[in-house]
Amino acid sequence: MIVKRTATLVFLLCLLIKTEVVLAQNEQVFADSISFVDFLKAQGEIPGLNYRLIDSSGKIISTALAPEVGGIVDYSQALAIQDSVLNRGSVESTLEFLVYNESSSFEASQEYVSNLLRNGDIVVNTPDSVNRKDLISLANKERYSPLLSGPYSYIGDYKIFAVISTITLFFVFAFAMIFFMVLYKARRNRKEKLVASYDEQIVGPLSEILFEKSLEELESLSNEELYLSFPENQLKKPIYMQVLVGRILALNKKMKGDFKLKLKALYKRLDLDKLSIEKLKSTKWDRIVTGMVEVNEMDYTEALVWVKKHVNSPNFHIRSQAVATLLNLSENIDLTFLRDQSFPLSRWQQMNYLRIIKHLHSTRNLHLGNLFDSENQSIRLFGYKLVRVIGRVDLLADLESKFPFTEIEDKIEIIKTFEYLGVPALSELINGSLTSENIKLASIAARAAGVIGDQSTAQLIIKILNDAPGFKLKMTLMKSLQSLNVQLYNQFIEENLSPDLQRISQHLSDPLLQDV
Amino acid sequence: MYSFLFYLILEVFGIIFLFLSFSVIVIYLLIMILSALEMRDHRRKNRFADYQDIITSPIAPGVSILAPAFNEGESIVQNVKSLLSLHYGKFEVIVINDGSKDDTLSKLIKAFDLKITDFAYNEEISAQPVRGIYKSNNRSFNRLVVIDKENGGKADALNTGINVASKELLACIDVDCILSHESITRMVRPFMEETNRKVIAVGGVIGIANNCDVQDGTVTKYRVPTTLLGRFQVVEYCRAFLMGRMAWTRLNGLMLISGAFGFFNRELVVEVGGYFPKTVGEDMELVVRMRRYMEERKIPYKVGFVPDPLCWTEVPEQEEVLARQRNRWIRGTIETLQLHRVTRLNPNYGVMGLVSYPYWNIFEKMAPVLELLGLLYTLVLIIINDFSAFYFVALFVVLYLLSILVSSFSILYEQIAYNNYKDKKDLNKLIFTIILEPLMIHPKVVFWGLKGHWDFIVGKGGWGNMIRTGFKKSEDKKNIEPNSLNS
User: Fold this and answer.
1) Size of interface A-B (CB pairs under 8 A)
2) Are B333 and B340 in contact (CB under 8 A)?
């Protein structure tokens, strides 16, 4: 819309520029009748305008130069004829105006010519030669000096102006960048020194408080006492606060028991908790995440109300940190809230959650099984991974019952879980998957068969091997067959002299390649 | 008539050069903005990342590090030890001895107590024959696999490594690169973070180790190189990695991951047929082919980039060596763009077809040629007396200042994000280089680029005719017989 309007505006402006010589309809072209007559004399012939001589009775006076039909075309000539007629016969004559051979009044003729001029239909005769001569002679009298001189001459030509402006702009930007770089470097070095100096200022009092004061003493510290360790004016400086928070967080990570409580008390006493909550309310994602990291590290459970609001945030980082913080700090939360998440779970998130869940599962019932019912496949897959990583053998029966109704990716993860835990599964789970048309599922099943298969699986493997599968699958199957039944494996090798099978057999029997 | 045509051509060229100059300015300014946004996001994200978890997490993907080696006898043992000491749980190091003529293999056998195995090698991607696959008797080197094969070039060696690799991700590196201990954990993160798109590859920054102190496989003290050529490459690398690739990552249009340090999804690499051994730009070619594969199947994907300094290499400080490197780079670029020209301005290939490809074609591949044409155009204008010194100097000054602006912006990035060059003198040296580079180094780079174009045209450097025809589909590479490439 704006573009359209701008274009219209530009068009109108152009129109204005182009039509500056065209006069408005109501504008006076001739100031009076004299100027009109002067114009007619100077202009000579005007298209559509003729003249004729009439006597006092209105009869047309005809002469050789002034024919009765058509009339005279040049006004000066008409005047000359009128004079000659007057001189010759003393006949009183009047000059009549004809517009397109129709008799017109003086005013009407004036209006007609005005219109011609307004519309640009006639070119006004200007005494060029005379003027030029005048101008040249005038110019010769004047000593030449350019209209714009010195630096202004460059501004006069818009092209030169544009080029010089561009160069100046680039020059300023380029050297401003270099200047900024040098300045930035100096400031950064100064900041690094400042951070190191603040760190030194903070470490001493912090250790003193931690080691010399009890929790009660710390909580009852007056402002004056606190400012002795952490000066009030310093606490107003953002870099100092940043270093202080960083130092407390780092110490909290390493400390245990009473020290952790003391650090938390100090964190609150210095009102750093309020800063963390402020960050949680921010609109910038990195500030929100920083706030959550602080809350998480300081075990600041009072802030969980604000953290909970971010669990379903569309921002990946906020969501991840909110879930991690909630899992870590909330005493009464289980994994049900994770089951209902609609966003796919990345491996990065899974890795972070896994670390926390591994730590929590022994002390809290997380209702892990709830994840299997999630409509979000990535959550379900994460649930299966959790079963194997934290060794929840009790949930395998549940997985086994769900297996026939799940999707291929789910099946793959369930088989991996059975394989990892080394718990034999129903033959349908492994044998059915071995014959799957999905090559990924068949390969996973082939690998797991060696661990969780039975003798029926061994027979099935031989059958599949006889159907000449791809090299990789062949190798996996043979490895599993070797694990399941060495006798059958040896017999199969003896009976099959295919170069591929022989090579695989040699590979499998090489002690250096046991883990390859 | 002749005169009219001549002036018409001149007029057209004038407009083209004006348009190009304007485009260069606009594009670089856009790159600056996009990379700034990406860098800001990356730094914010990094503040909350705990990389310790990945090292031991059972959910983290396994990584196969592929390090091709050709005549690396002098440093191979130290380099492999450095690779084996990386901090990560699930990884293996696969060193591929690409038919070295020196004692690379014997040194490895001796240092790591290697024994030849009965490894059932499965050639999923065709490569030169494997002579033997070695593993160590010593459990401490359990992660190490050494492949000895016939010489076939870097891409061929990598393909052999891919065939042997058993992990989910491939880390393709130059064996002489120094990797930070946390390089794997950081590079793996983008693969783990994405939920809606498949991350097919992740590129990393290559730092310049010349004149730096290195201890236990990590650069401990940064210093800028002593030579102007070395310092120029510091500026150039900052510009390319911290600005260019960051901006392209923002658009998901990254077409190049450095061959010295790149991570790939193994399954997809095998699916597209691995590296193409007949090109010297195998790193770029693989990324473009993987992208094509995903675009053709309409699978949402992403090519990631990690701007943290995790890998360092020594750059050439001799003109001849640098000239050869630049010559090879330009030939690699031409080759890749020729092979995949079907993507050019093709909306079916998304950002790659509509933005990345045209950019690479005009501003990377054709840049030296266009600069030469610009010079010739100026000469013609001077000869026919139609030359405006004012506009010429103005354009030159603007482009020179743009160069300073862009370079200083990229160095500023380095200062903001990493501040590796802590000494103020180093910064001053870099500023000096930024000012001199457009006048002293850039003309040489253009010349080397032109030489690369010429070498490509005359077929120097092992190019065949066949490969200039372009693939119809990304997987067509599989169907090209090696013999036909040389016809």
Assistant:
1) 138
2) no
